[in-house]
Structure formats: structure tokens, C-alpha cells
């Protein structure tokens, strides 16, 4: 753990993904706070309750929309005294990209991120991960149960079934059908809320990561997402973690991903971010 807060960058905003709550960041929050960072892990709007409460009454989950989620985090970030590092996991990684596209943040990290509009193919493993939602158009406006079996395939595929079930019990909530449909069919919607300005040159540096065993955001999907940023002169990086699944919050060895993301973001924010330094060189 080499990174430490500086006068320029001392705050991290963590954004959770679909099927999860801000509880999913608990280990990362503790690790980053131990290094002296101020860490914010706010929930999606309306999802401030605990996992158990959201399972009992998933109404707040069914109400989620990507545009509302992005606006919610934009307000939080603009309220900070200086631009923070923004990190988001899965659909939170999509939100991170959209926030960076709006000119926010000192640096951004999409941790196994859902893609912005423009990636033309979704891998079969991605579609299978979301099959509980996609199998019925009626699920678009529902909070769809995410079973232990669903979790074992989408998140727990590198762990024992007992460990996967324990993680499901602690972290998983129903999935927001509308959010998943928005992401899955973004290319069919000319006004998709997932559209980012991937050509923007004056945005903060952006890192996209994934794991070679990730069923939700496999390397083919994450790499295609990263390729969308090639026209931009802003810094964009991509990294794959061998043997890693989608469960970055608690899979054994999660510390490696947390440290890599933070080290990269702090270095990028302090050296090339146009929101932190006066001039930012191109790639």
C-alpha cells in the first residue's frame, strides 16, 4: 500500500453496482481510510437501507434509473472542496465513466465496469449473468430476485459454494431491472443514458479493469469498452487481473485490486489530471 493522500487528492468516492449496496465496499473503505484518505461510499438514491431491509422491501431498487443515479453522484462530487478520485464497480463503473465524461473527478477507475454505449456485443456470460432480469420484458420496472445460484455464477465462480453463499447472504440484493435493460439495450436507444463523450480530451485520467474469470464483465467486454476511448488524447488505461472474478469486494486477494486502483489513480491525479494540475500532457 504505497499511496497516501496529498494536498491535491485526499478524497475517494466509491460507487456500488447492480445487485449490491454500499456495504459491498466495506473492505475497501477500511483499507483506504487506514491510509489516511477520506472515503465516501454513498448508496444509489433511495437505497440507503441495509441489505436485509432492501430484500424485505425492494421498492427503492425497482425505482432506479441510470440518469438519476449519475445525477445523484454528480451532486455529491460537486459538493466536495476539491475533485475526488471516483471509483465504481460494475454498473458503478459505468456511472464512473459518465461522471468523468462530465468533467468531474481527479481520476476515475471503472472496476470491472459495465460498458458505456458503443460496445456492440455483449458476451454470452454477461447475458447469462443477467438472465434472471432479461428473461422477461416485464422485469424492466421490477426489482428482480438475485438467488444464491445467480450469485454463484455471476460473482462467486472462483470461490467454494459455501463461501459464495455466505457472500450472497451478506451482500446481495435484488437487481434493478430498468438499469440492466438500459445497459443491455443502450445501442438501440438514440437517447441512452449510458452515452459518454469518449472523445473528450480534457477529462480526468481513466483506468478500466477486469478479471480473467469475470462472468459479468469478461475481458472481451472490458477491452472493447476501453477501445472506445482511443480517439481521446486524455489518459486511458486498461488492466486485467489473472484469476479474478466479478466479486472484487470480498474475493480472496481483493487487496491487490484495491491497491492497484488506488496507486494508479493517485499517480494519475497528481501528474496528468487536468482537474488537478494546470497542464496535462497527452498520452
Mean pLDDT: 95
| CATH superfamily label | Alpha/Beta hydrolase fold, catalytic domain
Architecture, according to CATH? 3-Layer(aba) Sandwich
And the CATH topology? Rossmann fold
Proportion of beta-strand residues? 5-15%
Q: How many separate domains make up the residues? A: 1
| Helix content percent band | 25-40%
Structural class: alpha/beta
What is the rounded Rg?
A: 17 Å
**Highest-level CATH class:** Alpha Beta
Shape, per Cα inertia axes: globular
| Unreliable stretches covering 5 or more consecutive residues | 278-283
Number of helical stretches of at least 4 residues: 12
| Biggest sheet record | 6 strands, parallel
Helix and strand succession?
Answer: EHEHHHEHEHHEHHEHEHEH
Please give the order of strands in the largest beta sheet: 2-1-3-4-7-8
| Total strands | 8
What separation lies between the terminal Cα atoms?
A: 26 Å
